[in-house]
Amino acid sequence: MQAQRDAQDKENAPIREAQKNFDRITNQDTREYSEQKLIAVMRHDKELVQLLAERGITEPSLEAVDALRNDADLRYDVAVHFLKKLDKMVESSPGSFGARIVRNGEKSNDYMRLPVRTSSREYVAYLALAKISGMFNYKVDSADVFQDVNERNEIVLNQHRHASDMLV
Q1: Of 59 and 158, which is predicted with more confidence?
Q2: What distance in Å separates the CA atoms of residue 37 and residue 6, rounded to the nearest whole number?
Q3: pTM (predicted TM-score)
Q4: Whole-angstrom Cα distance, residue 90 to residue 108?
Q5: Residues 48-66: what's their mean pLDDT?
Q6: Could you tell me if 113 and 21 are in contact, meaning their C-beta atoms sit under 8 angstroms apart?
Q7: Which among 129, 99, 128, 105 has a CA at the least distance from the CA of 117?
Q8: Is the torsion defined by CA of 115, 118, 127, 45 positive or negative?
Q9: Where are the alpha helices (DSSP H) in 45-158?
């Protein structure tokens, strides 16, 4: 088990490096936003509640937000949880997601300095984790005024953010 985790840690080192880029935007506002997101997700995601409880986090709080940002092992476990949850959601209801999430190809994003081979669903899990760990710049997100759906009500823009909202 430890050898598997060591191999995964080595493989995911670039993702952990990307976390450092977001540490610079963390502030009291982003932490409070994340606390509210954590309150909401803990109401309906019992598997996440159990995972957090195993780490001593039984209530949503700013301290829980900070732990989700600073504890690398906890971050990894929550990200894996979100990724598995997203896979199940897409499998059971693909029409609820944009084509890029369903297809799950590689996602590139210079702003976040993601590793070259990050899948769309990994990116969604990363966004969901950012939203509950104080690392999501919600002010930029809320300023987005683009039309997200087309005339057939299919998600065409912001597919990854929509999917991350469905996780949290």
Answers
A1: 59
A2: 31
A3: 0.76
A4: 21
A5: 97
A6: yes
A7: 105
A8: negative
A9: 46-54, 62-70, 72-92, 99-103, 120-132, 138-142
Distances (CA, A) of 133 to 6, 75, 89, 151, 156: 24, 9, 22, 35, 27
Structure tokens at 101: 């999430």
Taking alpha carbons only, the member of 30, 25, 12 closest to residue 77 is 12
Question: Tokens 């476990």 sit at which residue?
Answer: 77
- DSSP annotation of 94 reads G
Helix (H, G, I), strand (E, B) or coil at 19: helix
Q: Please report, for the chain, the start and end positions of each structural domain, with discontinuous segments joined by +.
A: 2-167
Greatest Cα pair distance, the chain, in angstroms, is: 50
Whole-number Å distance between alpha carbons of 36 and 29: 11
For tokens 């506002």, what's the residue? 29
Q: Which of 10-14, 25-29, 48-52, 150-154 has the lowest mean pLDDT?
A: 150-154
> pLDDT tier at 141 (50, 70, 90 boundaries)?
low
Token readout for 34 is: 């994340």
Residues near 124 by beta carbon (within 8 Å), at least 6 away in sequence: 82, 86, 101, 160, 163, 164, 167
pLDDT for residue 25: 73
| 3-class DSSP assignment, residue 113 | coil
